[in-house]
Structures are given as C-alpha cells and as structure tokens.
Design a protein that fits this description.
- The protein is an alpha+beta fold and 763 residues long.
- Among the domains are: 35 residues; 206 residues, Biosynthetic peptidoglycan transglycosylase-like (Penicillin binding protein transpeptidase fold, Orthogonal Bundle), CATH 1.10.3810.10; 230 residues, Beta-lactamase (3-Layer(aba) Sandwich); 58 residues, no CATH class.
- It has 25 helices and 22 strands.
- Helix 5 packs across helix 7, helix 9 packs across helix 11 and helix 13 crosses helix 14.
- It is elongated and about 150 Å long.
Length: 763
C-alpha cells in the first residue's frame, strides 16, 4: 500500500471517530475556589455536628447512669409531698360552760408551725412569695432553665454582681423534703430530677401550699400561719397586701430580715441596720415584683407602699421550745401524757418517738376538762390552809382528781403549790400508792353484795383471823388484822355490813377469806380495770386492807367508784375525747363502752351503805358531809399512816384526794386535816352547787326494817330494829322472835366458811 493510501485511510478513521460523541475528548472545567471552600466547610461542620451528637448521646447515657447512681445514694428519685416530715404545732382545746371552744395550750418542739390550707391564704399573699422567690413558677415544670443557665454563667463571668439564687420554689421544697443539701453538683442534679418528677404528680397549688407551710420566718416560727400570728397577731386570711409583702421579705434571710431581729452591720454601707429596716427595704422590692408582674394595680402598689404596717409587740413573743410561753396546767400535762401513751400503743413507738410525734404533728386535741372546776381546784391547792391549820417545815404532798360518771376527767391537780415547771410529777395519775380501806367497797363488800353472799344486816363477829403476826413496833406476837383506833387495836361486838362506816378491818378479812382471794382478785382486776395489781396481791391482806404490793393510782381508784353512783357501770377514765391530725383525720377517739361491774341493785345497796360512812354516828368520813348535796364515800389509811385517801361520790361527780409523803413516811397527826376534811375543803363548794340532785333510784331494791338482834327482817316481837336495803334476789327471812336461838345460829354461820363448791361457780 502506498503512503497516500495509508494517509487516506487514517483520515477516514478520524472522521468516523469524531462523529461518535462518546469517543469525543472531554474538556477540563475550571474550579471555583469560593464554592469549593464552602463545600469543605459544610462537610466539616456536618461531620463535627454528627460527632457532637454521637458523643453527646454517649455522654448523656453515661451521665444518666451516673446521676441515677448518685440519686440512689442520696435517696429515692421519686418523691411526693406525703414524704414531707414537717414540724407543726399541736393545739389542746376545751369547751367552756357556753360550749365555746377554748385553746388551753399550744405545744411544739423544733418549730412553731401551724398547718393552713392554700384556700385560706389570700391570692395576694401567694403572689408576694411566688413573684419574689420564683417569677416563672407557673410556667416552668419544676426547673427554671433560663434562671439556672444565668446563674451558671454568672458563676463564671460574674456579670450580675453577687450570686442570685437559681432554685425554684419546687426545688427548694424538694431540698427540704429530702434533707439532701450537699453542696456538690451531683446533689443539684438529683434535685433537678426530683423537681421534675414532683411537678408531674402534684399541682402547683399543692406545691405552693407545702412550701408556704414549711419555710422559716425567724426564731421558732415556721410556716405562713405561725408567722402571721407571730408578727401581726392575726390569721393569714386577714393579711393585707403590705403585710403579706413583709412576710415574703423574710425567707431571704429569716434571722436578719424578720422585723423583730436586733439587726447587724450592713456589709454594703457599713452601717447598723435593724431587722425592721432590712424588712422594710425588701418589702418594697416584693411589692415592685408584684406590680411588675401585674399581680396588683398601680393604685394598690402605691397604697401598699404608703401603708403603715403595725406589728405585734415583740416582747409578747417567746421562742422557747415548749409551747405558748406559759406553764401548762396539771390537766394539760395529763392530756399530753395520756396521748403520748396512746400513741406508743397505737403506732408501736418508744416514749420519745411518741412524744416527738405529738409535739411536732400539728394535732388538735379535744379535752374533757371543766374549766371552772379545774380553776377552783387549782386555787385550793395553791393555798396551804386547805390542808392544815399549821404550816409544817416538812409538809406532806397531796393530789386530787374528779370525773363524771362517763369517765370524763373534769379536773386534776398533782401536787400542792404553784407549778414551777412543765413535766412536774403528777401524784394523781402517776404515783402508785396504797388505797388503804378505800379498797373495801370494790373488793370484800362489793363482791359479797354482788353475789348475794351477805345482806345489809348479816351479823359478823368483830374478831381477828386465827393467824398470829409479829408486831413491828413491839416485837410481840399479836392477832391480825387489828382495827385502827389511834394506832391501837380492839375486838369484840357484833356488826352488820355497816361495819364499813367504822372501817373495821376484821370483817373484810373474814369476807375475803370466805370469798377466796383469787376470786376477789379477778373481780377487782376485771370489773374495775385495775392495771397495777401483781400476782401476789391475790391474798387476804392486800384485798381486805389495801396492802398491795405496789398500790394503785388515785385515777384508777376514783374511776373504780363510778358504779356506786351510776347504776353499776364502769367507764374507762379519759382526759380527751378526740385527737385530730394536721389533715383533719381522727387518729384517736375515746370509746365510751361501759362495763357492768355490778348490778343496779348491788350498786344501789352499796351506795346506801357508803352513805353511812358520811352520815352514820361512827362514820369515818363525817368531816366530808355536805349540807345540800347527797354524798357517799370511803376513807382509807395505809399501814403506818403513810398514805391517806378519801373517795366521794355526789350525783354528778366522783372524786378523790390523796395525801402523804412522796418518799413514804408517817404523816403527822393533829396538824394535818383528815382526808375527808381535805376533800371537803377542796371540793365541797363545787359539790354543793349540785343542790337538788339525787342518785339514780332502783325500784327493785326494798327498804325494810330488820331485827338488830338477828339481822333478819323484823317481826312484831323484835325489841330493836333499824332500816336496811335489800336486793330483790337476797331478802332475809322474817325473824321468828326467838332471838337467842337465831342469834346463836347466825354466829355459827358467821364463824364457818362457805361451801367452796358454791364459790367456785362464781364468775
């Protein structure tokens, strides 16, 4: 092939190639440097953003686990307002003669706090706190992130001058609920989590109510109601705008900003400022915040600024950790002791735990006291002439208690003289002493009458039991028991049940021996609810003359005499009717459930029998006799004259007095009045006011004339007789007139023990 032919072939091939667009050679484009820069920058930013997101997610997950770990260490992350352990003031009330409620005392420990519901707090008072402490309270969900971030930046840059608070009202409340106040950041994280959770389950009103009931206002005052009473002497519902602003100014620094504070040197000015000056300045800030947030109008703002706020006299306020600044009465102290004891039983608490619960729980206690009787009795106990014509260098002590026939205690005094302090020992409710012969109506006589073993006129021989004992004074053997008569003993003669008026010891000892001590012991323990008995008290001496191992309280003794004035019923004695907690729930309520200790007929006969102690010519209680009011009662003297007692029943009340030395020793005779006279000196005037009233009648009991020779119902041939009272189930036969034979038969019966098989069936 020639060269030309080869060239022609090559040209043809190039043409064919140029005609194919895919085979055409591309032209190189020119790159824009600006556009390239932004593409690279965008790619870099996107990459960094993705890295931040991924890294942040990892960190957030790790942080969440970390925070939850610390939350567990600091307590539960989920809390409720029911977890708040607030200290509220407890109030004790009584009703006066017009049935109006009277406050007897307010008691508190740690803080003087009175619970108040949000609906009783005026809106302008709520606003004063909200827009001063937490301006976006109604907008945030527990945490004000804007405020928190501002505080965070200020900690770094210090652009606000000072350190503003970042905690919301919810956060402050959470910190108080949990007590978690560690300064570390992990505590703050727990607080944030908890605040968010609290806002999920509680309304803003609930949170604000809890907050206003918690915060301190200086001294022992805590909570808005206590502060309102402390500084203005008025209920929170009565506060004006200016007064509300004054209170809202205090929580910033309660010990310096309360208007009663003494004051300090101001750090900014170097001048001394009183608490009132600090309070006034901050009050203006509070009012401005309220106006700025449209809570009050301009007119209200200006009027509140101009208002002259009148505070209570600060000298009338006491920050003592006791109660309302006064010594509690004997009655109030008894109520406190009773409720604490009942709290121990109800909640299974120790004495201290129950006491703290009462003092800090914001309870309302409604008592049974009669204010007039309590005042009158206290007055008598503050006058030593009530007890003796001569003032002794070492005088005995005394106590008194009075209740109605439903067990409601109306008055109590635990010692002679003015009370010097709270928590004085109450000899009426806490001292366990021998009742002496006061035990006889509720043991030997009461038991025998209830089970028809004896009648009003059953004849007994005044003689001791066969056992001999060694006399402690002479060291010589003698018979037991002996009858007190100026500390000598005497025997002889025949007596009916009216031996009770002479307080002979021989007859009750014979009765207990026949009735069996164990049966009488159970009768005393179960029918009259005596709680201080010991097993060894199931014996003749303890049950016949009151020589108990420990003794019993005057409160128990007096309560045991209720059946003799109310038809045989026993009611548990109580100093209060109801205890209501801070939320209005009744936690304790006295149940008036009677025990029919003895039958109506037995009660009526025993009532008449004990009238002879007062009215009879040989009655040991004659000094207690009243002019216008019927009285039944019994005196009691323990061995060696260590304890002297008297229990008296009038138609409205049953009451008793004790006197003796706290450390037992002989009470001097001749200088101190008898126990029956002391009772009359203390209670006589009150009892006489019951003029015209009578004890309940019992138609079934028969008033009959009996033969004093035989104790049988008198016939026309009986030379002497007297009036007696007989149960319908146990009326003696009619005397035949053969007095000598019947008397001998009666003596034989009196000397023999009853058939124990009969006694065994007695419940």
């Amino acid at each position: 092939m020639s060269v030309r032919a080869y060239m022609d072939m090559a040209n043809n091939s190039e043409e064919r190639y140029s005609e194919n667009p895919k085979k055409k050679k591309r032209k190189k484009k020119k790159v824009n440097p600006i556009k390239s820069f932004f593409v690279i920058l965008g790619t870099t930013i996107l990459s960094l953003f993705l890295i931040v997101i991924i890294t942040g997610s990892i960190i957030a997950a790790v942080l969440t686990v970390y925070v939850l770990q610390f939350a567990d260490q600091g307590g539960p992350i989920y809390i409720g307002l029911e977890d708040m352990d607030l200290d509220y003031t407890t109030f004790i009330y009584a009703y006066d003669k017009d049935d109006s409620l009277v406050e007897l005392a307010s008691i508190s420990r740690n803080a003087d706090r009175i619970p108040v519901s949000i609906d009783r707090i005026p809106q302008h008072v709520q606003d004063a706190f909200v827009y001063t402490e937490d301006e976006r309270f109604y907008e945030h969900a527990g945490v004000d992130w804007k405020r928190t971030f501002t505080v965070f930046l200020n900690d770094i840059l210090h652009f606000l001058g000072g350190r503003p608070g970042g905690s919301t009202i919810t956060q402050q409340l959470v910190k108080n609920v949990t007590g978690d106040d560690d300064a570390q950041w992990d505590r703050k994280m727990r607080e944030i989590f908890r605040s968010a959770q609290l806002e999920k389950y509680c309304t803003k009103s609930d949170i604000l109510e809890a907050y206003l009931n918690y915060i301190g206002f200086g001294g022992s005052a805590a909570g808005i109601q206590a502060a309102s009473l402390k500084y203005f002497g008025k209920d929170v519902s009565e506060l004006t705008i200016a007064e509300g602003a004054c209170l809202a100014a205090i929580p910033k620094n309660p010990e310096n900003y309360n208007p009663f504070a003494k004051g300090k040197i101001d750090e900014e000015t170097g001048e001394f400022k009183t608490g009132l000056e600090y309070n006034t300045e901050r009050k203006e800030t509070v009012l401005w915040q309220m106006y700025k947030n449209a809570c009050i109008s301009k007119k209200q703002y200006e009027e509140a600024l101009a208002e002259k706020v009148v505070f209570r006299d600060p000298n009338a306020e006491s920050d003592e950790d006791v109660s309302s600044g006064e010594e509690n009465s004997w009655f109030v102290e008894m109520v406190i002791y009773d409720v604490v004891s009942d709290f121990q039983e109800l909640y299974g608490l120790t004495q201290k735990e129950a006491s703290d619960k009462l003092y800090n729980g914001g309870y309302k206690i409604y008592t049974t006291v009669d204010l007039d009787i309590q005042k009158a009795v206290e007055k008598k106990y503050n006058d030593y002439s009530t007890f003796s014509e001569t003032v002794l260098s070492d005088p005995p002590q005394s106590a008194f208690i009075c209740m109605d026939y439903n067990g409601n205690i109306k008055a109590v005094v635990g010692a002679i003289g003015e009370r010097s302090r709270n928590n004085d020992w109450n000899n009426a409710t806490r001292s366990v002493r021998s009742p002496g012969s006061c035990i006889k109506p509720i043991t030997s006589y009461g038991y025998g009458m209830e089970y028809d073993y004896y009648t009003w006129s059953t004849i007994f021989i005044n003689k001791p039991l066969e056992d001999e004992i060694i006399d402690e004074e002479t060291g010589l053997p003698r018979k037991w028991p002996y009858n007190y008569n100026s500390k000598t003993w005497d025997y002889g003669g025949y007596f009916t049940f009216q031996a009770l008026q002479r307080s002979l010891n021989t007859i009750p000892a014979q009765l207990i021996e026949r009735e069996t001590p164990q049966a009488v012991f159970e009768f005393l323990q179960n029918r009259f609810q005596i709680t201080t008995l010991k097993a060894q008290d199931a014996d003749i001496a303890p049950l016949s003359v009151g020589a108990l191992t420990d003794g019993l309280t005057l409160r128990e003794l007096v309560a045991a005499y209720q059946p003799f004035g109310n038809g045989g019923k026993y009611y548990s004695p109580t100093s209060y009717t109801e205890v209501v907690d801070a939320k209005g729930r009744t936690v304790l309520q006295h149940k008036y459930t009677p025990i029919q200790s003895i039958s109506k007929e037995s009660a009526y006969v025993m009532n008449k029998l004990m009238q002879t102690v007062i009215e009879g010519p040989n009655g040991t209680g004659r000094a207690a006799k009243l002019i216008n009011t019927p009285l039944v009662g019994k005196t009691g003297t323990s061995q060696d004259w260590h304890d002297l007692s008297f229990v008296g029943c009038t138609p409205d009340y049953v009451s008793g007095v004790w006197y003796g030395y706290v450390t037992p020793k002989e009470v001097p005779t001749g200088t101190y009045y008898s126990s029956s006279q002391v009772w009359k000196n203390v209670f006589g005037e009150i009892a006489e006011a019951e003029e015209g009233k009578e004890f309940p009648e019992c138609p079934e009991v028969q008033e009959l004339y009996y033969c004093t020779k035989t104790g049988l119902i008198a016939s026309g041939t009986c030379p002497t007789g007297s009036t007696g009272y007989y149960k319908s189930t146990n009326i003696p036969e009619v005397c035949s007139g053969n007095h000598q034979a019947e008397k001998e038969e009666d003596e034989e019966t009196s000397a023999e023990a009853f058939d124990l098989s009969v006694l065994a069936v007695v419940p």
